[in-house]
Design goal:
The complex is a heterodimer of chains A (about 120) and B (about 110). Chain A is mostly beta strands and about 120 residues long. Chain A has no helices and eleven strands. In chain A, β7 and β8 form a beta hairpin. Classes of the chains: A mainly beta (about 120), B mainly beta (about 110).
Chain lengths: ~120, ~110
């Protein structure tokens, strides 16, 4: 399976600031990465599919101008929460699908964002 | 479309068995099972591909009934470490596509 890291693991910021979350695929070159958010005791909600070298594909209802995704290399995707507000507080998790259709998604450890 | 997981919650004693289910109204290419502990990311358990297969890993096994578009996860002789939230993720097309996750089932194993 793929090994995925995220940074930071926790971040607390003031309302109105922007926060960048990094997702790295440590042992696999990922043309596609996925970004999820999860509220307490809720399911994993797919926010967007990050495509290396091209624009991300956002799910319906996700503001692309608020959640900026950049996938500049085969090992790094970043999610920037712009002008964060308390309702953006959540657990953000990225994943990589390493082996195509017969393999699963491997998740990073997640980033806990708290907006004050 | 989000798969439906049942039951909503399971409470059992150490050593007991449990079955949790994942159903879809659409044809599926594969079903993926994960377990998530509080505050942590989901951990992969197993993947089942269309063709109606069964898989097992130690005391956890799963099946996929392609005709019914349903997968079941079987936990036998449960251990305290099995506690967590179990999610199924469904893939309708393959081809490195995204997964759609169910709401999850909370399973608590007590001594």
């Amino acid at each position: 399976g793929a090994v995925v890291s995220q940074h930071p693991s926790r971040v607390i910021c003031k309302s109105g600031t922007s926060v960048k979350i990094e997702c790295r695929s440590l042992d696999f070159q990922a043309t596609t990465m996925f970004w999820y958010r999860q509220f307490p005791k809720k399911s994993l909600m797919l926010m967007a599919t990050s495509n290396e070298g091209s624009k991300a594909t956002y799910e319906q209802g996700v503001e692309k101008d608020k959640f900026l995704i950049n996938h500049a290399s085969l090992t790094l995707s970043t999610l920037t929460v712009t002008s964060a507000h308390p309702e953006d507080s959540s657990f953000y998790i990225c994943s990589v699908r390493a082996g195509g259709s017969t393999d699963t998604q491997y998740f990073g450890p997640g980033t806990r964002l708290t907006v004050l | 479309q989000q798969p439906v997981q049942s039951p909503q919650a399971v409470i059992l004693r150490e050593g007991e068995d449990a079955v949790i289910n994942c159903s879809s109204s659409k044809a599926l290419y594969s079903v993926h099972w994960y377990r998530q502990k509080h505050g942590e990311a989901p951990v992969f358990l197993m993947i089942l591909l269309k063709g109606g297969e069964q898989k097992g890993h130690e005391k956890i096994s799963a099946s996929f009934n392609e005709k019914k578009q349903q997968s079941s996860l079987y936990l036998t002789a449960s251990q305290l470490s099995y506690s967590g939230t179990y999610f199924c993720g469904t893939d309708r097309t393959g081809a490195n596509s995204k997964l759609t996750f169910g709401k999850g089932i909370t399973l608590s194993v007590r001594p």
